Amino acid sequence: PMQGITMLREVLDADPENELAIYNLGMLAITSGQLERAKERFDKLRELNPENPEANFYLGYCLFELGNTKESEPYFRKVLELDAGSVLVNGAEEYLGRIN
Question: Considering the entire predicted model, what is its pTM?
Answer without folding.
Answer: 0.92
